[in-house]
Amino acid sequence: MKIEKVYKDSFVVIGKEGSTRDGDGFVQRLWQEANSNFDEISDLAKRDESGNLVGVWGAMTDFSRSFKPWDDFKRGLYLAGAECRDDADPPEGWIKWVVPGRKYLVTEVDLDSYEETFRNVIDHIIPETGMKLAGAACDYTDPTTGKNKLYFPVE
């Protein structure tokens, strides 16, 4: 497993918010809603010089909204959305999160190995590097390549 260490400045995600309290499959339902209504935030999304979206994020936070990890990694909030301009105001029905700037350990992941990769980074890689998890992990998809990554905030 290849791990990168990166620093990412604070960034904005506008998306559809849900909670583990919404039951099984809530993340998939959020993505379905966000994707089917993306035209409502398309003009707010950050784009690169070629006009491609900069990033699609599944941001996570604890219930206090302080970007701490989910309670026992099982209970918390999820925002399915796109990275947007800092000054963007979300339209009705959309939520804006400002994710704090942090150091991250980043690794590619696929759906088949998501849980295994997540647990490996949390249980082995972070402790073995002498770091601590500093907040909730985030899912990231690079729209130009379709590759998925997990971002783990560390200190």
Helix and strand arrangement:
Blueprint: E1 4-8, E2 11-19, H1 26-36, E3 56-61, E4 77-84, E5 95-99, E6 102-109, H2 114-128, E7 138-141, E8 148-154
Give a brief outline of the structure:
This protein is α+β, with helices and mostly antiparallel strands and 155 residues long. It has helices spanning 26-36, 114-128; strands at residues 4-8, 11-19, 56-61, 77-84, 95-99, 102-109, 138-141, 148-154.
Characteristics:
155 residues; alpha+beta; Multidrug-efflux Transporter 1 Regulator Bmrr, Chain A; eight-stranded antiparallel beta sheet; 8 strands; 17% helix; globular
Mean pLDDT: 96
What is the CATH domain class?
Answer: Alpha Beta
What ranges have pLDDT less than 50 throughout 5 or more consecutive residues? Answer: none
| General shape | globular
As for the CATH topology, it is Multidrug-efflux Transporter 1 Regulator Bmrr, Chain A
User: What is the CATH homologous superfamily assignment?
Assistant: Regulatory factor, effector binding domain
Helix percentage: 10-25%
Structural overview:
This protein is an alpha+beta fold and 155 residues long. It has one domain: Regulatory factor, effector binding domain (Multidrug-efflux Transporter 1 Regulator Bmrr, Chain A, Alpha-Beta Barrel). The protein is 17% helix and 34% strand. It is built from two helices and eight strands. A hairpin with a 6-residue loop joins strand 7 (138-141) and strand 8. The longest helix is centred in the last third of the chain and has 15 residues, at 114-128. It starts with a strand and ends with a strand.
